[in-house]
Write a structure and sequence with these properties.
It contains 19 helices and 8 strands. By secondary structure, the protein is mainly alpha-helical. It binds arginine.
Length: about 450
């Protein structure tokens, strides 16, 4: 027979571990201490606690911060979470006044406040990192607005574009991400502190004061909502998932472009790894990992959406499951942005191979059809069939249409026998790219114009 007492102890230990969030929510110690100092100040200002008590509470909390940062703090799983760990230590240090700190609040509004503060802090950090990445893309764009590369649809050669224009596509994606973080920051910058357990408090508190002390725009409006709301966490998870999707798309292109088949770019040796068995290989592990890590960012978003979906108002312990996914997504995006920026900054760009690739797939065939429509007033459908003949003729010569001479063009179709010499200009790859001067188009001049717009935006954000 197993000893019943031992069984009971073991169960209690397992339960403690199961119930506790301390092992992961200790990350919130700074926000917890900041929130408690603001709360104590407000309580003193309102005459709810004495100035002396506030003073010893604040000193005690600052001592706890030191202890945590100097790794002297003793973490005990029995404390359950960061809030109780700090409060229990505070009573050890200052005695009775510690018991007054929790007046007019509950752990429900406390955790919502701490976590909102964390999400807001991290939102600002991520925005800075996004800005660096955007700057890197714009910088490459400014240097490569005349570097030809095949523009693709369906991963098939379509029309000649320039590499700078391709980089600006990513700069635009990350700019939208940046703006998404700005907007969620503003929307969520409201203080839940003082909502208490779910219904507010009978104490004469000043929630506007704590909101102000913590850098929030104002207090939240409904205690019932804000003691259990986790939209701010969902928004950062969505923003991160979307940014990771963009990171994954450029990573995929880097992987393709650095393959032998493309040979457009080479990643600096620091960011390419070797194979343990094939000594000749250089593998794009870094962009592959960036692409792979997108999975966990999506998972964390779906995870929290699922946690929240069936919860009756207000706080439920399920909500404790909100933190690890957010911490993980934040850490993932932060390192991913740093690494992608470094990869892009050191990327070796092979202009010759990019340009060579433009001579595969008759990228200027559409320009030829457009020329016939514009210059010869031929209906587009007829021009389309004439162009098909020219393409077939070029294939017969194993040439790209951009390489045909005027004699060859004239020989390619009965309709073109006496076509004027300037038809050759429209077949030229660079001319084709430069013809697209519409706003947001690929021409070098429009790419340079868009770079200017970005430089201006960067200086204002
Ligand atoms: N550790 C808890 C969490 O992260 C804090 C709030 C606990 N509140 C409660 N009523 N049990 O959600």
């Amino acid at each position: 027979m197993p000893n019943k007492q031992i069984l009971k102890n073991t169960n209690a230990e397992i339960l403690n571990q199961f119930n506790a969030s301390l092992l992961f929510d200790k990350k919130l110690y700074l926000q917890d201490i900041k929130g408690s100092i603001a709360h104590s100040k407000m309580l003193a200002l309102q005459g709810i606690i004495s100035i002396d008590d506030q003073d010893s509470i604040e000193k005690g909390l600052l001592q706890i911060k030191e202890e945590i940062e100097n790794r002297q703090f003793v973490w005990k799983i029995e404390d359950e979470d960061i809030h109780m760990a700090v409060e229990n230590r505070l009573s050890q240090i200052i005695g009775t006044p510690a018991g007054r700190l929790h007046t007019a609040r509950s752990r429900n509004d406390q955790v919502a406040t701490d976590f909102t503060l964390y999400v807001q802090d991290k939102t600002l950090d991520i925005k800075e990192k996004l800005k660096k990445l955007i700057t890197t893309f714009v910088d490459i764009a400014s240097k490569h607005s005349d570097t030809l590369i095949p523009g693709m649809t369906h991963l098939q050669h379509a029309q000649p574009i320039n590499f700078g224009f391709h980089m600006l596509a990513y700069a635009n994606m990350f700019k939208r991400d940046f703006e998404r973080f700005t907007s969620s920051y503003e929307r969520n910058n409201y203080s839940p502190l003082g909502s208490a357990a779910l219904a507010g408090t009978p104490h004469n508190i000043d929630r506007f004061k704590t909101a102000e002390l913590l850098g929030f725009t104002a207090p939240t409006n409904c205690a019932l909502d804000s003691s259990s709301n986790r939209d701010f966490a969902l928004e950062i998870l969505f923003n991160i998932a979307t940014s990771m999707m963009h990171i994954s798309r450029i990573s995929e292109e880097l992987i393709l472009w650095s393959s032998y088949e493309f040979g457009f770019v080479r990643m600096s040796d620091e960011y390419a790894t070797t194979s343990s068995i094939m000594p000749q290989k250089k593998n794009p592990d870094v962009p592959e990992l960036l692409r792979g890590k997108t999975g966990r960012a999506y998972g964390n978003l779906i995870g929290l959406l699922t946690v929240m979906k069936g919860l009756p108002l207000a706080y439920n312990k399920d909500t404790q499951e909100d933190k690890e996914g957010v911490f993980d997504s934040v850490e993932t995006i932060e390192i991913s942005l740093d690494i992608l920026t470094a990869v892009m900054e050191t990327l070796i760009i092979n202009k010759e191979n990019m340009e060579k690739a433009c001579k595969i797939g008759h990228l200027t065939a559409t320009d030829l059809a457009d020329y016939l429509v514009q210059k010869q007033n031929i209906p587009f459908r007829t021009a389309y069939y004439i162009t098909k003949d020219v393409v077939a003729y070029a294939n017969g010569l194993t040439k790209d249409v951009s390489e045909l001479t005027i004699e060859e063009v004239r020989a390619s179709s009965s309709e073109l026998q006496s076509v004027s010499e300037d038809i050759i200009d429209c077949l030229n790859l660079r001319n084709s790219m430069n013809a697209r001067q519409s706003f947001g188009g690929t021409s070098t001049s429009e790419t340079n114009h868009q770079v200017k717009i970005f430089v201006d935006w960067l200086s204002k954000n």
